[in-house]
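sry for the spam today, last one i promise. C-alpha cells for design, 418 residues
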C-alpha cells in the first residue's frame, strides 16, 4: 500500500519515522490505518471550488532540521511575530521538526504542560490518546486521513484545573524550504475553571514557494474554562494551505477564536465549535484576504446545545482575481432551548476580477431559540475615499485606512502582532 507522491510514501517510511520519534504502538497503527484510508477516501466537496489541480501530494513529508539554541537565531521576520516580544512560552517548528521549545518554570510547577506532540506521546501518552483524533476524525475525508498518517511536530498544551495562564503560549510553524510538507497537529486541553491564551503563526519564506501546509487543531474546553486562540496564517502564493480547527466546549466554558487567513495560496479552512452543554459560549472573529488568482474556501461552523450563545463575524477583502467562498453554518440541535446564534459576514471587493460569496446558513431543529444572520458584498465607499483624499491622502493610503477600519474589532482583540 502506498500513496503516490513526488517522494514515494509507503508503510515502511511511516513506520520508520514513527519508530525514530519513539511513538507508542497505537499511534503507529493509527498512522498506517490512515495511510490506507487516504487512498480510498474522497477529497472534501467544496461549493463552487474544484480541487482537481491542487497540490496535495508533491512535497517531502519528513525533513529533519537541527535544533536552535535560542529564538534569537531565528530570522528577524519570525521574531517580529512574538506577542509583546515574549519567548518564555514558545515552540518553533521548522518544516517537520520542532527546533525550539521552552515553558516558564512557574507554569511547569503548576502542572502546565506545553511541548511538542511527539514528546507528549512519550511522557503523557495516556492523556494524548484520550484526545487525539476525537474532534477531527482521521476518516472524515482524504485530507484528514493524509494528515493523520503524516503529522509531525505540532504542540500539546495541557492546563490543569483552576490554573490561570496569564502570559500567551506561542507557537510558530515555519515552512522554511520549497517542496516541504508542514503537518503540525495541535491538541489543547483546558481543565475545569482554567484559562489560557494560545497564539500561533504559520509562515513560509519565499513569495512563490511551492509547498504544502496541512494542519489540525483540536481544543477541549472543560467546565467553566476559558480558552482564547489567535491563529494567523501568512503563506506564499505557491503554498497549498489546509487547516481543520475544532473545539468542544463543556458547561459554562468559553472559546474565543481570533483568526487571520492572510495567505496568498489556495486555501481550505474549516473552523468548527461544538457547544456541548448549557452555558457554553463561543465568540469568533475571522478575517480573510486572498490575493492573485487563488481560491479560498472558509467554512466556520457552530453546533449549539441548550442555553448556549455564539456570535461569529468575519470580514473578507478580495484583491486581484481571487475567489473566496464563505459558508458560515450555525446548527441549533433539537432540545437546545434558549440557544442564541448570530453571525455576520462581509466581503469587500477591491477588484472587478475578484469573486466573493458570503453564505450564512442557519440549521434550526428547536423552536424556543434566537438566531440571526447577515451578509454583505460591496466595494469601498467612494464618498469616504473622496473625503480622505481631499485631506491630502493618496488613494492607496485611503484604501488601506478604510480596510483597517473594517478590521478594527479583529485587530483590537488579537494578541498576535501579525
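last one done:
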Amino acid at each position: 500500500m502506498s500513496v503516490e507522491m513526488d517522494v514515494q510514501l509507503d508503510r515502511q517510511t511511516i513506520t520508520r519515522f514513527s519508530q525514530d520519534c519513539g511513538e507508542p504502538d497505537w499511534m503507529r497503527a493509527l498512522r498506517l490505518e490512515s495511510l490506507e484510508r487516504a487512498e480510498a477516501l474522497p477529497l472534501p466537496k467544496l461549493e463552487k471550488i474544484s480541487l482537481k489541480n491542487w497540490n496535495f501530494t508533491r512535497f517531502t513529508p519528513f525533513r529533519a532540521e537541527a535544533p536552535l539554541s535560542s529564538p534569537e537565531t531565528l530570522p528577524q521576520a519570525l521574531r517580529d511575530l512574538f506577542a509583546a516580544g515574549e519567548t518564555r512560552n514558545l515552540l518553533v517548528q521548522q518544516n517537520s521538526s520542532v527546533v525550539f521549545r521552552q515553558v516558564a518554570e512557574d507554569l511547569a510547577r503548576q502542572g502546565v504542560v506545553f511541548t511538542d506532540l511527539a514528546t507528549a506521546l512519550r511522557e503523557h501518552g495516556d492523556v494524548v490518546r484520550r484526545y487525539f483524533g476525537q474532534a477531527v476524525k482521521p476518516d472524515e475525508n482524504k485530507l484528514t486521513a493524509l494528515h493523520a498518517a503524516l503529522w509531525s511536530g505540532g504542540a500539546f498544551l495541557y492546563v490543569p484545573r483552576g490554573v490561570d495562564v496569564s502570559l500567551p503560549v506561542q507557537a510558530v510553524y515555519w515552512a522554511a524550504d520549497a517542496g516541504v510538507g508542514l503537518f503540525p497537529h495541535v491538541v489543547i486541553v483546558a481543565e475545569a475553571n482554567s484559562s489560557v491564551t494560545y497564539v500561533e503563526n504559520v509562515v513560509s519564506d519565499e513569495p512563490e514557494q511551492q509547498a504544502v501546509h496541512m494542519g489540525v487543531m483540536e481544543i477541549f474546553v472543560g467546565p467553566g474554562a476559558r480558552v482564547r486562540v489567535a491563529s494567523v496564517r501568512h503563506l506564499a502564493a505557491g503554498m497549498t494551505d489546509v487547516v481543520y480547527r475544532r473545539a468542544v466546549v463543556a458547561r459554562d466554558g468559553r472559546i474565543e477564536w481570533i483568526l487571520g487567513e492572510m495567505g496568498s495560496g489556495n486555501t481550505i479552512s474549516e473552523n468548527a465549535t461544538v457547544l456541548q452543554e448549557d452555558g457554553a459560549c463561543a465568540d469568533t472573529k475571522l478575517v480573510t484576504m486572498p490575493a492573485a488568482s487563488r481560491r479560498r474556501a472558509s467554512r466556520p461552523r457552530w453546533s449549539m446545545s441548550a442555553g448556549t450563545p455564539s456570535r461569529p463575524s468575519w470580514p473578507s477583502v478580495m484583491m486581484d482575481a481571487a475567489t473566496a467562498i464563505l459558508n458560515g453554518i450555525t446548527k441549533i440541535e433539537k432540545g437546545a432551548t434558549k440557544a442564541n446564534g448570530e453571525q455576520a459576514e462581509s466581503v469587500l471587493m477591491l477588484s472587478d476580477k475578484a469573486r466573493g460569496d458570503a453564505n450564512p446558513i442557519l440549521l434550526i431543529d428547536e423552536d424556543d431559540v434566537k438566531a440571526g444572520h447577515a451578509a454583505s458584498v460591496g466595494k469601498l465607499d467612494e464618498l469616504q475615499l473622496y473625503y480622505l483624499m481631499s485631506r491630502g491622502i493618496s488613494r492607496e493610503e485611503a484604501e488601506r485606512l478604510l480596510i483597517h477600519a473594517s478590521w478594527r474589532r479583529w485587530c483590537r482583540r488579537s494578541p498576535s502582532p501579525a
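The two ends are 42 Å apart (CA to CA). ok im logging off now
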